[in-house]
Write the structure tokens for this entry.
Amino acid sequence: MRNVTKRRASPEVLEAIAAIVGGDRVSTNSSVLEHHCKGETYHDLEPADAVVFAETTEEVSAIARICNNHSVPVIPFGTGTSVEGGTAAPFGGICVDLSRMNDVLHVSREDMDAKVQAGVTRKQLNSHLRDTGLFFPIDPGADASIGGMASTRASGTNAVRYGTMKDNLLGLTVVLPNGSVVHTGGRAKKSSAGYDLTRLFCGAEGTLGIITEVTVRLHGIPEKVGAATCAFRTIEDAVECVIAVIQHGIPIARVELVDEVQIKASNSFSKLSMTVAPTLFMEFHGSPASVNDQIERVTAIAEDVGGSKFEWADDPEHRDRLWQARHDAYYAILALKPGSRAWTTDTCVPISHLADCILAAKKSVIAHDLTASIVGHVGDGNFHSIICIDPNDRDEVARARAFNSELVERAISVGGTCTGEHGIGVGKIPYLAREQADAMPLMWAIKTAIDPKNVMNPGKVLPMPF
């Protein structure tokens, strides 16, 4: 693989693209470029040369072909919720905004699947499904696009029961670097036909091609939903409760850990009055009898490890407010330190090591004198530390970087990963090389075979140069 230098989009390239999509859908406005490179990230990033608003797979194909012919990078963009710099343009190029590709193409109630364009967001899809009795369960918190969620192999609060994005993908339409279009997978619930190309592109973060259509599994809306919070004396007690719930085979739908720092921030930001202590947010899905059985069993487990009385949110409005507070954790912690930006870590470890890793992280926050909270999808061992940093304070940024490095190295050392759901982007490249050292040559072989000119989102995922 050759080294990559700046490969700016020339006026000739922009004119060729404008001839296909129209000049009004090609922008070089500085504020538009800035918006498309940042996302929700702490990284200092460079914008693309232009943003193109595509509306069809055919347009994306034509854009890719033009860029490939001129060796100009192509950077896909969904809704801008990336936290690891996945939409930046370190080598210049064209940002392809897929947000206008937002049609729900097909829904089958009988087969419990849906086909959508990549720009459809998870909230939009579930709103469309409202009268079908079905829903799409992957909930990363942000209202991300389905294409972006597939590209980063997203997860979220429902993963403990419904799996992650890769578990709910049936097929993809992908535009390759040379402009050709491939359709992977299908609508069958299982297949042994050839290589699993759907999983190859899922999590590739746009480095192998641009996802333009996605076929996903749907699930039945549960007959009953119960939600509750339970405070614990210590982080260890809360994690011990989660481990016991998982080991007992209780099909809990969501179980989120929020530490006392985050509870204090969320009380202020979301106007709540929760006990300031390590707290589990839980949700139970199923028939009334099933949900009641789950609640009884989890309550007994929580009491055994010193959990407080459960606080229930039975009505949908109260339940939605509770989960919105969890989703707003990012903004709540930032409100503790006005003017700061968030550095969100994303390690995932075997659940047997979860308590030790979280406790070590909390001690490390203190040692590095940082303002940070801990939140996590603890049912699958994934947790985040949201660090408030002043990007102009070099010492604080250095301390945050040291904290993050310690966190990731600890996770990898116990068999975990540097990223449970946010992806590699530009921020986790060194750690991927450490975590998957033996697989790096194979990953580069795949990248080189599919994208020999390295035009698809270069500078992301894989270390440069090889």
In short: Residues 394-413 form the longest helix (20 residues). DSSP finds 16 helices and 19 strands in the chain. Residues 11-99+444-450 form a domain with the Uridine Diphospho-n-acetylenolpyruvylglucosamine Reductase; domain 2 fold (CATH 3.30.43.10). The mean pLDDT is 93.
